[in-house]
Amino acid sequence: IYITCSLVASLFAISASAFSFQATQGLVSLDENAQRDVSSMNNWASSCGVQKANGFDITSYDGQDYLAVTQNSLPAGSPVLYVPNEMVFSSSKAAQEFGGALSESEKQLSIANLQAQIPLFRVFVKILIEYAKGDSSPWYPWLNSLPRQYFNGASMTNACFDALPPYAAWLSLTERVNFTNFQKAIQFAPLDQN
């Protein structure tokens, strides 16, 4: 499998900076102010076989952040959503899809003693590939519904880590380190230069 080099470079550049990125036609806009299309994602999920508990819905109070709500009381432990296996990103599916294409990247992670992160790395690459496909990706409605701005460890500065309680700082820094290691490892994946 080949990953489009220019888009992957753009995704990494954007994820590591505060600058906005205007998507070309057919791609998900990564601009942090881009409108999230949650309604299309909801319709897409239903058409793909996602089943919701009675009264389950997605709502927003401000049009930017969305949350799951239910209009009915649900007994503890009852299922809320059923998601068909075909819709789930998993490391084992990514390994099958990519074959040995990520072997050098995975080797680099192993050399860095990060074998435990290889499953997450495979899913990371799968999501980047689906972003690169733009509206030809079966997951485009989902990708286009996601927030473009995150406040997690991968996006924090050293000052942010210093302001957090120790355990939260460690968790956040771990996210940042994983992201940095994934950026390094993907450089060893075969990239289509077209």
Mind explaining what this structure looks like?
Residues 1-18 form the signal peptide. InterPro entries: SET_dom_sf. This protein is mainly alpha-helical and 194 residues long. It has one domain (3-35, 87-192). It is 44% helix and 9% strand. The chain is built from eight helices and six strands. The chain has helices at residues 5-15, 38-47, 91-98, 103-111, 118-133, 140-143, 158-163, 166-186; strands at 3-4, 51-52, 56-60, 66-70, 81-82, 191-192. The chain has a two-stranded parallel sheet with strand order 1-6. β3 (56-60) and β4 form a beta hairpin. α3 (91-98) crosses α5 (118-133) and α4 packs across α8 (166-186). The chain is globular and about 50 Å long. It starts with a strand and ends with a strand. The model is unreliable at 1-22 (pLDDT under 50).
Structural descriptors:
single chain; 194 residues; mainly alpha; two-stranded parallel ribbon; two-stranded antiparallel ribbon; 44% helix; disordered N terminus
Describe the SSE topology.
Blueprint (H helix, E strand, L loop, with lengths): L2 E2 H11 L22 H10 L3 E2 L3 E5 L5 E5 L10 E2 L8 H8 L4 H9 L6 H16 L6 H4 L14 H6 L2 H21 L4 E2 L2
Helix pairs in contact: 3-5, 4-8
Keywords: Signal
InterPro entries: SET_dom_sf
